[in-house]
Amino acid sequence: LYRDTLVRNLHAGLQEGDRIIQLNENKIDSLETLFDWLGQQKVGDKVTITFVRNGETKTAESKLKARGEAN
Questions:
Q1: pLDDT number for residue 54
Q2: Which of 12, 29, 40, 71 is most buried by a 10 A CB count?
């Protein structure tokens, strides 16, 4: 559920094992925080995603899409 939800809603090239630590200026410290933040956004909103992959912090830009919307 976690990986599928992120890929469908963020569309930022996230890979299995990536750990999101920030969305825009909002620290993400739990799955609950992530879902709360996503629930407050609208389709089309732009987002800067900061995540950790293999110990390296990376940043990606994306826009929120509706579930099932083509990439």
A1: 93
A2: 12
